[in-house]
From TrEMBL:
Keywords: ATP-binding, Cell membrane, Disulfide bond, Glycoprotein, Ion channel, Ion transport, Ligand-gated ion channel, Membrane, Nucleotide-binding, Receptor, Transmembrane, Transmembrane helix, Transport. It catalyses: Na(+)(in) = Na(+)(out); Ca(2+)(in) = Ca(2+)(out). GO terms for molecular function: ATP binding; extracellularly ATP-gated monoatomic cation channel activity; purinergic nucleotide receptor activity. GO terms for biological process: calcium ion transmembrane transport; response to ATP. Gene3D superfamilies: atp-gated p2x4 ion channel, atp-gated p2x4 ion channel domain. Receptor for ATP that acts as a ligand-gated ion channel. The chain crosses the membrane at residues 31-50, 352-374. This is P2X purinoceptor. It comes from Molossus molossus (Pallas' mastiff bat). It comes from the Eukaryota.
């Protein structure tokens, strides 16, 4: 008995099992099956191969470098600064041209500051006092401009006062000009030069048009007629974000410039060109919310301006002075993304095999409909599944698996 069992197991190793196919003459299920096949085939051809280019190997590890330059001059004449010509060295921070830079458009100017004692600004809560005991000497004013001297300065017929401080006096004024000082900056131009490299395919490109015309970059400007010119007008860039330049110039803002590279390396390299997207990134609040806009404080001297650096000057008597400016403006963040694709047999085979495997899903779904959801489902279920029992034939026991003939069933 044991020998027969082992022998049967050993012989079963060389058995070949095949499926039994039942052809169901049902037009509705047949139509459903063909529609599913057509849908899967359309998905494979249109979406996988045409849209997603599933026949390509891709590289998304983009290496990128950005160089920026801003050009433009403005002449202003104010009571605080007098006559002044603003050029790139004055209003662009940092001046060396990076992928993040800031263009000054408005200023709060506090000229001729010197180190002495004066009253702290009444707009600072920590500086409000009733008497001298509320101004401990040597203690800085929180979010203020200096160190307390120990005196509480009150005006006539006023109950509350502000602490006297030792600081750069007079302290900064808090009123922002309603008309931006550099409101004509909308005619400035921004030159954005982008180098990219896809290491997998050893492919490099730049967004500057390959031309031998030396005057091209001096005369072109990005637009529908010059899509490959890397020079952008500042006011136009702001308008592309859906904002008004004069409003943004007054209180500042943040603009994101996204450069997208989608390169099909099966085509000519000249067809690999960038697309630009412009979006305002700072959140805009209604009215004059303190959360709106973008600004920072920079210490500037009257001549020349060195943003973000404290530069001082002395009068004839040797007294040291400075001019303090609170700058409002537009910050630009340039972001580069991209992918490159090239034909490769491996992803092609994988996607074709996946599509063929999906065809089996259509058969599985139609089987469910055929044997469970239509009126004569019990009839088809009996034809698809047969009960087979073992029996004695000759000198051995035979196990019946499935009929290997092709059977046609008509309802």
């Amino acid at each position: 008995m044991g020998q027969d069992c082992c022998k049967g197991v050993f012989q079963s190793l060389f058995d070949y099992k095949t499926e039994k196919y039942v052809i169901a003459k049902n037009k509705k299920v047949g139509l459903l099956y063909r529609l599913l096949q057509l849908s899967i085939l359309t998905y494979l051809v249109v979406w996988v191969f045409v849209v997603k280019k599933g026949y390509q190997d891709t590289d998304t590890s983009l290496q990128s470098s950005i160089i920026t330059k801003v050009k433009g001059v403005i002449f202003t004449n104010t009571s605080e600064l007098g006559e002044r010509l603003w050029d790139v060295a004055d209003y662009v921070i940092p001046p060396q041209g990076e992928n993040v830079f800031f263009i000054i458009t408005n200023l709060i100017v506090t000229p001729n500051q010197r180190q002495e004692t004066c009253a702290e600004s009444a707009s600072i809560p920590d500086a409000v006092c009733l008497e001298d005991q509320g101004c401990p000497p040597g203690k800085p004013v929180v979010t203020g401009n200096g160190v307390r001297t120990g005196r509480c300065l009150r005006g006539e017929n006023k109950q509350n006062g502000t602490c006297e401080i030792f600081a750069w006096c007079p302290v900064e004024t808090g009123s922002r000009p309603e008309v931006p000082l550099l409101g004509k900056a909308e005619d400035f131009t921004i030159y954005i030069k982008n180098f990219i490299h896809f290491p997998k395919f050893n492919f490099s490109k730049t967004n500057v048009l390959d031309t031998k015309d030396n005057a091209y970059l001096k005369s072109c400007q990005f637009g529908p007629k010059s899509p490959y010119c890397p020079i952008f007008r500042l006011g136009t860039v702001v308008s592309w974000t859906g904002s008004d330049f004069q409003d943004m110039a007054k209180q500042g803002g943040v603009i994101g410039i996204q450069i997208e590279w989608d390169c099909d390396l099966d085509k000519d390299p000249s067809e690999c060109n960038p697309r630009y997207y412009f979006k305002r990134l700072d959140r805009r609040f209604p009215g004059n919310s303190v959360s709106s806009g973008y600004n920072f404080r920079a210490e500037l001297s009257p001549e020349p301006c060195l943003p973000r650096f404290a530069k001082y000057y002395r009068d004839e008597a040797g007294v040291e002075f400075r001019t303090l400016m609170k700058a409002y403006g537009i910050r630009f963040d340039i972001m580069v993304n991209g992918r490159a694709g090239k034909f490769n047999i491996i992803p092609t085979i994988i996607n074709v095999a996946s599509g063929v495997a999906l065809m089996g899903v259509g058969s599985f779904f139609c089987d469910l409909v055929l044997i469970y959801f239509i009126k004569k489902s019990h009839f088809y279920r009996k034809k698809k599944y047969e009960e087979a029992r073992s029996g004695q034939r000759g000198n051995g026991t035979v196990t019946v698996e499935q009929l290997q003939n092709l059977q046609t069933v008509e309802a």
